[in-house]
Amino acid sequence: MRTLFAALIATTALAGAAQAATVYPLDRATILNGSPFDFKVEFKSVVKPEDVKVTVNGQDYKSVFGTEAKFVAEEKGKDDKVLGSALILRGAKLPAGTYKIEVAAGDDKKSVTWDVYATADKPKAKNIIFFLGDGLSVAHRTGARIMSKGMTEGKANGHLNMDTLDRAAFIGTSSTNAIATDSANTMSAYMTGHKTAVNALGVYADRTPNTLDDPRVETIAEAVRRTTKKSIGIVSGAEIEDATPAAVVAHTRARADKAEIVGMMYDVKPDVILGGGSAYFLSKDVAGSKRKDDKDYIKLFKDAGYSLATDKNELAKVSGDKILGLFHTGNMDSVLDRQQLKKGTVDKFPNQPGLVEMTKVALDNLSKNPEGFFLMVEGASIDKMSHPMDWDRAMYETIEFDQAVGLGLEFLKKNPDTLIVVTGDHTHGVSVIGTIDDEKPGTDMREKVGTYADAGFPNYEDKDGDGYPDKVDVTRRLAVFSSNFPDYYETWRPKMDGPFEPAVQNEKKQYVANEAYKNVPGAVFREGNLPRSADTAVHAVDDVILQSTGPGSEGFKGYLEESDVYKVLVDTFALGAKK
Amino acid sequence: MSRGIDVLHFDRRTFLSTIGLAFATVPFREAYAATTQLSFGELYGKVSVLGLEFSDKVKTLTGKPVAMRGFMAPPLKAEAAFFVLTEIPMSLCPFCSSDADWPDNIVVVYLGAKQTFTQPNQLIEVQGQLDMGSWIDPETGFVSRLRIRDASFRMA
């Protein structure tokens, strides 16, 4: 112990002495052959430009990049605090190869290595459909399978569509600044091939406060536009400028820059855009707008040739080369609310399409392009309902997501030159542990939780064959719990009156149990195990399971970082062939 | 963001019992004789993807004294001169980190004089002058479209 302590002091002291600059892209970055990226060096102190030496594989960087970086004498942080000098070179490009970048200014030194990789010369598939279940964890799949298909004597009575995919890999989801992760940096890693920091999209997270100046990397939509004539589609039940759909096109340190993200989506102009979040498309003078400027993106998209759909009926009739479908000012309602309970905001937006209908329209339109397409479909509310521990809604969302995957598999049958990927971006600390049986004696709900042999099987029924239980509040239902939680009242039953909101914030910015659930029969208070700043259950660090089928899917095996998944995608499309 | 109706039932019970109390308290009624009650359900006449439209009641009451019942969300920043009144106890959209991620049916309240923050589960009644139209708070940049200005509140 004492030796370890001494060793720690020694390493800490060393790290302090050698003032390490930071180089972006970070060490061990993998970069698509020919793709533009921003090169940035952050020195830890103010240095003189003449003292700065940067080499790439031993050569002066200017000859390798073909241009000179901008020198910033003093980068400033909060309250104009001087952070040090910096070098920035936007839009650098490198041919395939291994690169060692050495940076020095006095004793401020850093060395990083990048792998610029080429792809196959010829595409393996014409189309890619990337299904992203936000927060999709193993328990969601198990729960959805049991609720949707049933189980007899320990064997599933049917399989989910995603169960039938033939290749799989474990995926590491951690961010550049923590083992933990969020939907921005995770999807960004899938969609750019670069890992980044929590909340960041399409950039490395630099030290300056400006969220829009961080060093950029290319997104898959930009790479597809740069190298092919393929179409691009983005489908989500979330706000379309929310982290996951945004990651297909966006560059910002802060996923909350939603108004700017709409502008970035406009710049890339995906051919099909379907989801919620119209509030960020409306000029600030329109009630319901969440913009702080006068830009009317509905008009801008229309002027750019988009046909607009605002509800299910308009979506069914919409035609044209480019489609913008916005079906809610915010996040669209969960399928349990839309189809069965009519709660949430269904009274305000009664005619929202579901993920399956949106996916169908996207496939029908994108497949008209003989060059092929890249389509991203997000099952957004698997995550949005898992945060507040509304497991029934999260399971229904997983079933809906799986039905969208089913459409993809049907498409694959007729179009075998299609790669299908089904994955989550991160996991939740959720587990199915048995059942809760109202028929057990007494009023103490805890004693109605059945574990081991006592769990038996739940009594959901799907008589109408739509894949969803006909009713969610059955008497013997799945017992699902989170490993982590804020203070809340456990009610042991589905939230029939609208999505669960477990905790509310007090004046000390601490989250306390929402007393609205205190008087639900059988409810018990659970003291949280998360910091009091946590509003809901958090993401888990656990690996994600990715499954895939179709040409190119052989690239998925073993353990991969999320950023490695991009390599398989661009290899399938041959976006970085050596020329 | 959608909110629980069981919560609303809970509110309504509280609401009805406190209404009874309010009418029993004569000075309150006299002091605010010209004040019109406005509920969250009465804010919008039209809700659509392409924009919401305030109700005729809101348009008529603009510039006039109103009373609204709801829950106080914690101030966004310590220095904020306003707070957000919500229909049910809530905090910022749990999935996002932006000031903009509030549901549509909120009202921003600017107090006439300093008052102490209440607990998030406490129903309050706010009285003040209704103000409609886009407004950017100069200190926080928070955009609101409906406000109660020169307001005061009490436990409801």
From TrEMBL, chain A:
<dbReference type="Pfam" id="PF00245">
    <property type="entry name" value="Alk_phosphatase"/>
</dbReference>
<protein>
    <submittedName>
        <fullName>Alkaline phosphatase</fullName>
    </submittedName>
</protein>
<comment type="similarity">
    <text>Belongs to the alkaline phosphatase family.</text>
</comment>
<keyword id="KW-0732">Signal</keyword>
<dbReference type="InterPro" id="IPR001952">
    <property type="entry name" value="Alkaline_phosphatase"/>
</dbReference>
<dbReference type="InterPro" id="IPR017850">
    <property type="entry name" value="Alkaline_phosphatase_core_sf"/>
</dbReference>
<feature type="signal peptide">
    <location>
        <begin position="1"/>
        <end position="20"/>
    </location>
</feature>
TrEMBL record, chain B:
<protein>
    <recommendedName>
        <fullName>DUF3299 domain-containing protein</fullName>
    </recommendedName>
</protein>
